[in-house]
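Q: I'm writing a short explainer about RhoGAP domain containing protein for a general audience and would like to include a description of its predicted shape. Could you first generate the structure from this sequence?
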Amino acid sequence: MNPQYFSRSPEQFGGKIPFVVSDLIEKLRELDAANVEGIFRLSGSARDISDLANMLDHGRVKDWSNFSNVHTISCTLKKYFRDMVTYDALLPYEYFQTAIDIPNKSANDDEAAAKFKELMNKLTPARRNTFAVLIKYLFEVSQSPTSKMHPQNLAIVFAPNLLTKQPGKIDPEEALLFNAQQNKAIATMIRLYEKIFDDINIGPELFVTDEDLEILASPPINARDLPRIIELRNLRKESLIPFVPGEMLADPAFVRPTRVVAVE
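A: Of course. Here's the predicted structure. Afterward I'll give you a sentence or two in plain language.
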């Protein structure tokens, strides 16, 4: 059974940082991707990105030999958040307006950092820690002169994948304005990373272990699916189809009821 890790929200990793995020960032660091020109801006192979995402959907990648291209790995990281944003953005939809207002309504960097810190503290620990790990790496990339990916450039490719209005509630006429505000918010978070996340300690206990994966292997039940699951179970319970206890099936004297279907 596919555990569907790649489509899980941060809260569905046992209170820890999604290994999809931490493993991809760890691999990017191993390949010194922060010093690669155009990292996160240039595209990798669409097929390789799909294959890597599918592999992560089933579990941790043990052999990276087929995924040594930094752009494939960086684009897979973007894909995780891009897929999320359509149904469960890393920054919950209700905080979108708050986030995009911060850069324009703050007198200075200290005030902006304090407001973003307050916003991060409203998130679940899993989301806050995921933000911290991601923004830290983007900050590292922005500090590399060879990457040529300043906070503004990184924001252009990441902002739409991290914060947005709820789908269906975006006025097309406002879209361009929102894009600029999204970019400014994420660029500010990257630039002020050290002030916003200075009180968050990401220790080894927050990373998913192989032992954790054994527990997490069962696909999660989405709260939105519960009414339908209950409905189907009640339908089965109230059905006219009789329930046959398992021990009766082992009784040679038991004959399963049959139904004659007339064919016209």
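A: For your explainer, you could say: The CA atoms of residues 177 and 261 lie 64 Å apart.
Q: Perfect, that's easy to follow.
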